[in-house]
Design a protein that fits this description.
Oligomer: single chain
CATH superfamily: LemA-like domain
Helix content: over 70%
CATH class: Mainly Alpha
CATH architecture: Up-down Bundle
Strand content: under 5%
Low-confidence stretches: none
CATH topology: de novo design (two linked rop proteins)
Structural class: mainly alpha
Length: 182
């Protein structure tokens, strides 16, 4: 093999590696976009359920109006804005809904209302789907972020402008173990 043939072979191998690595990076980036879209779908589903829940409890809870207004306001925030803002609003909404369900305990008729029970169940299911979608997003982000930091793929990532993506993390106050007293 002559020197020119060796150089051509090395160029072909480098080009093939670049194409393969680029395509893999694109696949990972699209997996992240898909994972976010799944979160988006669940946030929209949750936002659609909330007005029904608020309307179902309005008649019972006239003096908890502030809480209902806060839930309505947070609902509008989770359907618009950038992903970080939407996830922050989602976390605040989770807390507000917990407060709503806790207050609902004081209303026996409301607690037994089939519409409210069904909506609570649907919201719980949606919360689980959001948690699963967040996990899928973070798994995709992990694979992508790891690849763009590893040698030699990092050179292809830098060449084509692939940037690290953030993980969806819970806030420090949500990490605390709840105190349970019996």
């Amino acid at each position: 093999m002559t020197g020119i043939e060796l150089i051509i072979l090395l160029i072909v191998i480098a080009a093939l590696y670049t194409f393969i690595t680029y395509n893999e990076l694109v696949r990972y980036r699209e997996a992240i976009k898909n994972a976010w879209a799944q979160i988006d779908v669940q946030l929209k589903r949750r936002a659609d359920l909330i007005p029904n829940l608020v309307n179902a409890v309005k008649g019972y809870m006239k003096h908890e109006r502030e809480l209902l207004e806060k839930i309505t306001e947070l609902r509008s925030k989770i359907i618009s804005g950038d992903p970080k803002e939407r996830m922050e609003a989602n976390d605040m909404l989770t807390g507000a809904l917990k407060s709503l369900f806790a207050v609902a305990e004081n209303y026996p008729d409301l607690k037994a209302n089939q519409n409210v029970l069904q909506l609570q169940e649907e919201l719980t299911t949606t919360e689980n789907k959001i948690a699963y979608a967040r996990q899928a997003y973070n798994d995709s982000a992990y694979l992508y972020n790891t690849m763009i930091k590893q040698i030699p793929a990092m050179f292809v990532a830098k060449l084509f402008g692939f940037k690290e993506v953030p993980y969806l993390e819970i806030k420090e106050e949500e990490r605390k173990v709840p105190k349970v007293e019996l």
